[in-house]
Amino acid sequence: MLTATGILRRISFPSFASTYSTTMEEMDEIRARSLLKHTYVYNPPDELDNIIVNAAKHHGLELDSSDWKITEIPLDNRKSKFLLDLGRSLKHLVPNSKLHKMKSLRDLFEFYEQPVNNITKYAELARNEKLPQNLAIMEQPRRFHPNDKTALHGGVTGNPGEGGTIYSIRNKRIYREFKPKKEWFDYDDQNFDYDVTLSKGMPWDPEIANKMDSYTNIRFTKEYLRKMR
């Protein structure tokens, strides 16, 4: 989690301590899937203008002597190769919906000078360290768990025999589930095991989840599918 000094620490959930541990950056990528436009973070480099100019020269674009930004991008194969190589070097590709707007190097520069984030505005506000002292924002819901004895609830639920189940596949990888006491004899068991055994082979199994994560950035193009054959 992010501390008061902004240092990134490992987040380990007590019930998943031996099987699942992730960083805040990885958690943001998981939450951004299917919810936000980008799952990654992009910050424009300091020498963005030099990077664009060098890439343009490499692909044979003749820069305007008065102002390189007004140089038009030719509508031929050079445009696709130029934008693809530049996007790969900056790890931020121009989306299909904006390709037709990239008519000059100025358009390209204005696109790449805009930072990209993979968290919501609410999350940005919750992580802001300059909030007033009388304002506290909780970024994520604090789910009840009986093993949290140091919490205000002391591990005692107001709904005996209920709760503990997480239905979303995404949230199963983030939050802890627990097995509630349902039978009368469970309440006399001082060593009752609340932990839920992770289902082997299911999408929220860390081993399976890591395999799925390795495919998130692969574009299943015709060329890629041919290689898979």
UniProtKB/TrEMBL annotation:
<dbReference type="GO" id="GO:0005762">
    <property type="term" value="C:mitochondrial large ribosomal subunit"/>
</dbReference>
<keyword id="KW-0689">Ribosomal protein</keyword>
<comment type="similarity">
    <text>Belongs to the mitochondrion-specific ribosomal protein mL50 family.</text>
</comment>
<dbReference type="InterPro" id="IPR018305">
    <property type="entry name" value="Ribosomal_m50"/>
</dbReference>
<dbReference type="Pfam" id="PF10501">
    <property type="entry name" value="Ribosomal_L50"/>
</dbReference>
<keyword id="KW-0496">Mitochondrion</keyword>
<protein>
    <recommendedName>
        <fullName>Large ribosomal subunit protein mL50</fullName>
    </recommendedName>
</protein>
<keyword id="KW-0687">Ribonucleoprotein</keyword>
